[in-house]
From TrEMBL:
Bias (Basic and acidic residues) ranges: 436-445
Family, as annotated: Belongs to the CFA/CMAS family.
Superkingdom of the source species: Bacteria
Protein name: Class I SAM-dependent methyltransferase
CDD domains the record matches: AdoMet_MTases (cd02440)
Length: 445
């Protein structure tokens, strides 16, 4: 049996893909998207890694060439593969033929792209999952690529979390600033308050809250590159007396009595089993009537935790990352003494955010390749486009959960009917400069 014949048995001769194999055989529709297996290693990747991981490995190594693919934004290809390549149900005879085909090609340990992280078993050398040293290594793998690379992909806001688009025509920068205002409004930030931002990234929330809401803020990140960039930005903004970003573990924060805590995109990294201790720690850092805003990617159900160990995201993007449903997060928060006051899903907004990041990557493709290497740039193209598709199809979601450390007397600190939405696209509640002060607002987030 040829490779092309095996393809037709698995996906059908009318599949919207034209497979051209190194042995000269073909499969799928003659008018379909052309995928070329340039050598036997391409087949071996699929036999050993499955469809998702195998496709990524073969593509990144050049063993699979896809005609006309946009390396910076392969969304159309991923959507076509997702929609148009369902596996056929084989007869007993066909299944036996496929088994003989696999045995003939003798699957062997594949050659791996250098961008792929070790398996879960090999990561044990760095400690148990979510031990401090292993967490630091996982964060460094993803975030300590190059600050310049992130500037090109994320844009001037340097914000690597879901934006919130106030209107259909809002730009990415407007949406990121609006997201920070939304978080600030939900937290009820006022001049003189103390804010803790855990997993603060490049300090966007810290800087925004200090400049526009008059608070004093501390941010914490495990990425040395992020902390260095954020401290320089804080100094340039002239707010070093009220803002700081620390390089370290959030568990090293000793201060207490904060008025508000924001956790924007950190929960995905801490491990589902660590949720109780995580939310307990954050509650202990708040004063009575203080508020917590937890913003993180979630699953669309509460029946599954974690990420597939053999999946693309786990091996190339977020080593040791774990997701669960928003209901599980709410339950743990409540079990640890928080009173949940508001819960919102921004799934469609994250799809738009990923599309905007893909567009930035495409615009700066040559520079991004020079900065991070072709393999890493390709990983980012796949990752962002695949994430966009996942958010669009409700395969993953993004939830903000707002809660308070309600006092023993039952005082939550919330008014009877609180406003949680900025009334004018990022100006309500600000104490400093607004969009109307003559600046373009791009450095605000």
């Amino acid at each position: 049996m040829t490779v092309g014949q095996a393809f037709d048995l698995v996906f059908g001769p009318d599949a919207p893909v034209r497979l051209v194999a190194w042995d000269g055989s073909t499969g799928g529709s003659p008018d379909g998207l052309v995928m070329r297996m340039t050598n036997p290693d391409a087949l071996n990747h699929f036999l050993t890694g499955g469809s998702e991981l195998g496709l990524a490995r073969a593509y990144l190594l050049g063993d699979l060439v896809i005609d006309g693919i946009d390396e910076a934004d392969p969304y159309d290809v991923l959507r076509l593969v997702s929609d148009g390549l369902p596996m056929r149900r084989q007869s007993v005879r066909e299944a036996a033929e496929l088994a003989q085909f696999v045995a003939h090609h003798r699957p062997r340990t594949p050659r791996l792209p250098r961008e792929e992280t070790p398996s879960q078993l090999h990561r044990m050398a760095r400690g148990l999952r979510h031990a401090r040293g292993r967490d630091a290594a996982a964060i460094s793998h993803h975030y300590d690529v190059s600050n310049t690379f992130y500037e090109r992909v994320l844009g001037p806001s340097m914000t690597y979390t879901c934006a919130c688009f106030p209107t259909e025509g809002a730009s990415l920068e407007e949406a990121q600033a609006y997201k920070y205002d939304l978080v600030a409004q939900k937290l009820g930030l006022q001049p003189g308050m103390r804010l803790l931002d855990v997993g603060c990234g490049w300090g966007g929330m810290v800087r925004h809250a200090v400049k526009h809401y008059g608070v004093t803020a501390i941010g914490v990140t495990l990425s040395r590159e992020q902390a260095s960039w954020a401290q320089a930005a804080i100094a340039a903004d002239g707010i070093a007396d009220r803002a700081q970003v620390r390089h370290g573990d959030y568990r090293d924060v000793t201060e207490r009595g904060f008025d508000a805590i924001s956790s924007i995109g950190l929960t995905e990294h801490i491990g589902v089993r660590n949720y109780p201790s995580y939310f307990r720690f954050l509650r202990e850092r708040l004063r009575d009537e203080g508020r917590l805003l937890n913003h993180c990617i979630t699953r669309p159900d509460n029946r599954h935790d974690g990420l597939p160990s053999r999946g693309f995201i786990n091996r190339y993007v977020f080593p040791d990352g774990e997701l669960t449903g928003s209901g599980h997060i709410v339950r743990v928060m409540e079990d640890e003494g928080f009173e949940v006051r508001h819960h919102e899903n921004l799934r469609e907004h994250y799809a738009r955010t990923c599309a905007a990041w893909n567009a930035n990557l495409s615009k700066h493709w040559d520079e991004c390749v020079e900065l991070a290497g072709l393999g890493t740039a390709r990983v980012w193209g796949l990752y962002l486009a695949g994430s966009r598709l996942g958010f669009e199809r409700n395969g993953i979601q993004l939830h903000q959960v707002l809660a308070s450390r309600t006092s023993t007397e039952g005082r939550s600190g919330f008014p009877l009917r609180p406003r949680v939405e900025p009334s004018e696209a990022g100006q309500t509640g600000r104490t400093g400069q607004t969009r109307g002060d003559g600046r373009d607002g791009q450095a605000d987030a």
